[in-house]
Predict the structure of Cytochrome P450.
Amino acid sequence: MTNASTQPETASFDFSEESLSALTSWSEQVKQVTLATGEKVWLAKGYEEVRLILSDARFGAGDEPMHRASWSEEERKIGRLLHNDPPQHGWYRQPLNKAFSARRIQQLEPRIREIAREQLDVLSKRENRSADLIETFALPVPERVIHEILGILPVFRSEFREIIEGLLRRGQTAEESRAVVDQALDHMSRVIEEIRRAPTGGLLDELIATGQFADVVLADLAVTLLMGGYLTITGMVTESVAVLSQNPEARRNLLAGAKQSAETVEELLRYITVIQYGVDRVAREHITLGDQEIKAGERVVAFLPAANRDPALCPHPEAMDATRRRVRHASFGFGPHQCLGQQLARVELDVMLTELFGRFPTMQPARACEALPRRIETVIGGFDRFPVTW
């Protein structure tokens, strides 16, 4: 245990390949690091430590995400759902729970499958049997699904793609961050105004009808749902295709039946961990984490990718094993902030991957995946482009 009077040794950590490679050699499960911004934070890589950080009330949600520059209290912000602790967090989340319940998502499964098949029809018309999978399938499907759930009409949809990319981008200045937040809230406010005039039958209709939230809050919640609603699935689909192209057994398991496809999807969620920079929290009081003393007010990063590869979670965690007994991986988090859309994510991935490989059994990346550009500038991982052939 670190003595309270001793300054802990810090390591430079910028989430580069070199930093991530060094992470595997750490003997500590929790270590203080200095980020590229100069900020010192505690980085937790152990599964049990990550689970504690995300489920223990002694760690609270920060006022702003770590990737976004801090601004004054008076400025417009996004993320009430993400950056409030109970009981306030529950007040925002409770009206959303029904819309993302397992029962409601299962009712949506036929529509999700229909959308996936429509996009595969587009893909099948490519004369040279090649395409960018992101442009034609991995992005349009979840994008259409979350917009339909919210009740956002097609005329409003195209502008949101660039906006959401901006909201999730790391390394922006405060001015850049303010501009994209203003753009997001202004555009969503116009959507809400239109829905008030002409209801569309989506979740925003339901939330408006409750009268619980002012329009500024509705806009915030809706943008937050978009942030989590499609780029995560886009990243998971392309990364999954990359993994499955190297693992024929897992690919066969995916198509062997409903039980097997669910097993394969769950293992892919553990193995890939598309939230690539972890989740940050703030210590609300002094607490011992691992062998370290964390002081009240210090920021802690629950590094999900490392937690999902911790031998304490499962045997041979570095291997993708589609028949692995289901484990409670860290990809959806834990505690009150556990991912609201996790059931939707599971169903979308299952439908999209089974429909994709069922329709195009020979599909594979057109180039070595190691040579493809990755989304290193955003908090959600994946590829910038993903050319495939079949």
